[in-house]
Amino acid sequence: MGFDRKLLGKQIRRILLVYPPVTYSVQSMKQCHLPLGISYLAGFLRDSVEVLVLDAAVEGYEHDERISERFFRYGLSFDEIEKRIALLQPDLVGISCIFSSQFPNTLEVARRAKKVDKGIITVAGGSHPTFLSRECLEPDGIDFIVRGEGEFALRELVESISKGQGPEAIPGLAWQEDGSFRESRLRPPHLNLDEIPFPARDLFPLSKYHRIGQPMGIVFRRRPFMNLITSRGCPYRCSFCSSTNFWGNKYRIRSPGNVLDEMEELVKKFGIREFKFLDDNLTANLGRAREIFRGMIERGLDVSWNTPNGVHVANLDEDTLELMAASGCYELTLAVESGDPLVLKELIHKPTDLEQVRKAARLIRQKGLGTHGFFIIGFPGETKQQIKNTLDFARSLDLDRISCFIANPLPGTELLQVCREKGYVNKDYCFDDIDY
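Above: the chain's sequence. Below: its structure in token form.
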């Protein structure tokens, strides 16, 4: 069982891209922001096929359901999603799965699509299915998994099926056929990000995101706000992070002009007043970052902005911070991770100088910007004293906000490999109830 080759030759004219309901723990906060992943896919595909989107999280944001002692789920009910699929009659349903805790929701959406019509082709993408492709495929749910970057692989899959051709020659896919797991070769990352169209944000209910007011990172100054990303990947290989493995081993950037054109379009077309830069490391290429900040001033964008996913402190000199502030920055998140040098070097593998962190935090405050710090504790081999060192260091920085996370062995990370080698995680380990 699995992908039915009888579907080859099926004309795929209408695609529905779904962001599923969201599972969150009792101690975390609900967030609601436009899903850039399926928005990029929609922008890339809509010149060749009809593309519809369904953000089940925002459309059912007010609907909360307790699913266990520790977890809630918000978003449209699966019955309602099934009704929407039946009404829209897509030929293919693509479903996002960024976090491991969301996979049961992704799978249930795929099952509901198959319940509506077994001829609907179902595709899942995102970090979790990329790294656990074999475990995620099932005969009555997901037909294909796109591993890694999705735009080109999904377009080629649509074209191939419509032409009656199999998926074997398309890089970046996994599927099940005749009871066997199959996968094509990995797809090399697309180097010129300027060639990828801007996200199709116009297909989403933008006013509802702004009205709810729970963006990535929670904090905002002005409405309406919008998230954007100016690069893919990260030049570092932190043990807890799957970014480099997901996006490929090359840190890729958009040109400053391309980024500024998108921002200017969003300001003029949708009246955006604040941006959330979701890059893994916005300032990794400092020269490019400074060109973007300078361009925001020269184009008179008059916007506020912050960095919910964090920046590395090594490049945060006084001149750069002044430019950031002048271009509208009001808060920087510092991805410090640990306050213990040995943990940073031996367990996380992040080249962070803690004295540079102290200096950067002090400079940021002097420039009148808010400060937010990311820290992680609980790595295998980390001692109680090292955890205390991190907490003491975090307190000493006098930051406005601190987020402290528990180290989790996520799919695609070195940390998961370490935990498996040490016997902390077995083959039956359940990723669904990971709590951050």
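Residues 25 and 435 are 7 Å apart (CA to CA).
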